Write a sequence for this structure.
């Protein structure tokens, strides 16, 4: 073991100072360039050589002359003023940027120290040399560091959202939904919609676990406590869109009762995205039995590993496109339409497979009446899938969503008239297999009865087209007939003035409806406020559904105990952390601790 050299105050003549490591090893650091050398270089010849070669100076300085040299923190501020980051700032910036990318890509925190950093060091050693490798080695990327970085960024993003909520000129809209993760823990997720700088913003609000039970009062307590914790009154909420079990988040649930008691002005809306469940509830006995038969067939194939392997091998042998069937789920409504389509298109092949396996499901599956029912259900749920897909986007408001639902329901009378005439054009799968008038007549009666029930149920459940005639100026203030507005209506004058402006007309033709009314907030505040109070509420819980998909990446079998509230906020929020502010606060805390 080599002898450790000691620092001598006389070395300051070469513009060096001393840094001491945790184990007591002293290392020289150049005051001019901040370069740190090994303990072996702690001798006059090495220090003088660096000073003469790199800085072209003349030795002879003492301790008093070093007092006039800028400190490292002063140098850091000077570098920032010229747009250059100091060495310490650069290390922190690199660490935060990697943690941000790690959260965005939903990767485990250990990936940095176990994979990324070792790979980066090897690449730097091979391509750039040992000096670059030493610099990369200093970037802190341990598991704990990444975790703390993500927590800090999450808090910064949350603070930005809370500041926006406090500054918004109108009440915000909330979207709320619940799911169960891989660890059987119930998670409540919320998104918020608000106005900021003439634009409607949709942002992630929180994802918190329901610790004990999942009753409506538990959901409300978690929802209310979030606002109380951040010192925001619940009155800031103007609407809440919910989805889930009627006992927990439905329109007549305990949650709604608690919300109404605490803040009576809040409007409660139910997600318009799941008409499949309503259609299923209206199914007559024969159609319901057909749907259950499909579910049993899929469970027979997918629920048993040997059957699933044989099924895949069978389809590969005969060269069929679909070799994997989807599971039917209640919560992911699109799956029901997809599995019905798959089963119908693979009907003959599945029937052969069931015969080969001597399944007791064969008799019901190859029944001709079952095939008619299957074709009708596949067609109907395909229409419902298209309706749901058209509403699955960000920025969907209640007016647009109900227009789509209203348009869908208006198709029913035309379908019924065609079916009465034995015209099944709107149901192509059914039309494909019907070959006789007797078959058409038998199935037409069942379809007619079911479609009438669905139409009535849609009207009662979703309140299709409930925007009052006098309020339709919100959709198009220029083509709206002002005669529908009462003369005593205070904003009628503003409407007339708005219609007279050619510039505003150009804005209306080129902007989205929500953005147009946000832009009118300063010119016609009363009109804009009335319009936006209708446009801000969420129509669906689509954003929560996207969030639940991200949840699957964070909560896995190997990360079942992982608390992902901060990670999921960084991953799916549109806000970008204020890195410069976070790093500046970090450096200030480090300086105070010294």
């Amino acid at each position: 073991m080599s002898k450790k050299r000691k620092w001598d105050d006389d070395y300051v003549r070469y513009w060096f100072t001393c840094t001491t490591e945790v184990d007591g090893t002293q290392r020289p650091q150049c005051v001019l360039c901040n370069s740190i050398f090994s303990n072996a270089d702690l001798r006059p010849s090495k220090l003088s050589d660096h000073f003469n070669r790199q800085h072209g100076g003349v030795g002879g300085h003492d301790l008093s002359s070093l007092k006039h040299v800028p400190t490292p923190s002063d140098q850091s501020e000077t570098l920032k003023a010229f747009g250059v980051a100091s060495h310490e700032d650069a290390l922190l910036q690199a660490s935060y940027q990697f943690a941000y990318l790690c959260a965005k890509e939903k990767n485990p925190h250990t990936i940095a120290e176990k994979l990324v950093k070792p790979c980066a060091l090897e690449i730097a050693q091979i391509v750039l040399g040992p000096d670059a490798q030493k610099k990369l080695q200093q970037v802190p990327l341990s598991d704990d560091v990444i975790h703390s970085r993500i927590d800090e960024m999450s808090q910064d993003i949350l603070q930005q959202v809370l500041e926006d909520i406090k500054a918004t000129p109108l009440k915000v809209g909330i979207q709320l939904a619940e799911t169960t993760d891989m660890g059987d823990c119930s998670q409540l997720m919320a998104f918020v919609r608000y106005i900021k700088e003439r634009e409607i913003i949709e942002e992630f609000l929180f994802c918190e676990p329901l610790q004990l039970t999942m009753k409506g009062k538990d959901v409300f307590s978690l929802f209310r406590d979030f606002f109380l914790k951040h010192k925001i009154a619940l009155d800031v909420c103007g609407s809440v869109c919910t989805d889930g079990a009627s006992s927990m988040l439905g329109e007549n649930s305990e949650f709604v009762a608690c919300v109404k008691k605490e803040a009576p002005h809040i409007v409660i809306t139910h997600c318009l995205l799941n008409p499949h469940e309503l259609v299923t509830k209206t199914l007559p006995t024969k159609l319901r039995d057909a749907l259950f038969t499909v579910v049993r067939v899929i469970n027979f194939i997918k629920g048993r590993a040997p059957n699933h392997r044989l099924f895949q091998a069978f389809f590969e042998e005969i060269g069929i496109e679909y070799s994997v069937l989807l599971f039917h789920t209640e919560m992911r409504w699109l799956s029901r339409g997809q599995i019905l389509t798959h089963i119908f298109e693979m009907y003959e092949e599945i029937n052969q497979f069931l015969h080969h396996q001597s399944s007791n499901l064969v008799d019901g599956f190859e029944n001709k009446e079952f095939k008619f029912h299957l074709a009708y259900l596949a067609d109907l749920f395909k229409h419902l899938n298209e309706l749901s897909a058209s509403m699955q986007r960000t920025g969907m408001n209640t007016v647009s969503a109900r227009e789509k639902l209203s348009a869908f329901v208006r198709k029913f009378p035309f379908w019924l008239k065609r079916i009465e005439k034995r015209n099944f054009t709107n149901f192509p799968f059914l039309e494909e297999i019907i070959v006789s008038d007797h078959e058409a007549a038998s199935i037409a009666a069942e379809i007619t009865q079911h479609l009438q029930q669905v139409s009535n149920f849609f009207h009662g459940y979703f309140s299709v087209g409930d925007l009052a005639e006098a309020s339709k100026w919100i959709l198009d203030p220029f083509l709206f007939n002002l005669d529908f507005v009462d003369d005593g209506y205070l904003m009628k004058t503003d409407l007339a003035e708005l219609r007279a402006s050619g510039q505003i007309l150009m804005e209306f033709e080129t902007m989205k409806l929500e953005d147009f009314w946000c832009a009118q907030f300063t010119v016609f505040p009363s009109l804009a406020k009335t319009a936006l109070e209708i446009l801000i509420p969420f129509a669906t819980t689509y954003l929560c559904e996207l969030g639940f998909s991200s949840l699957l990446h964070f909560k896995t079998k190997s990360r079942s105990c992982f608390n992902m509230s901060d990670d999921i906020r960084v991953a799916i929020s549109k806000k970008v952390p204020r890195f410069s502010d976070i790093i500046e606060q970090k450096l200030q805390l480090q300086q105070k601790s010294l």
In short: The CA atoms of residues 41 and 574 lie 50 Å apart. Confidence is low (pLDDT under 50) at residues 58-85, 326-334. DSSP finds 27 helices and seven strands in the chain.
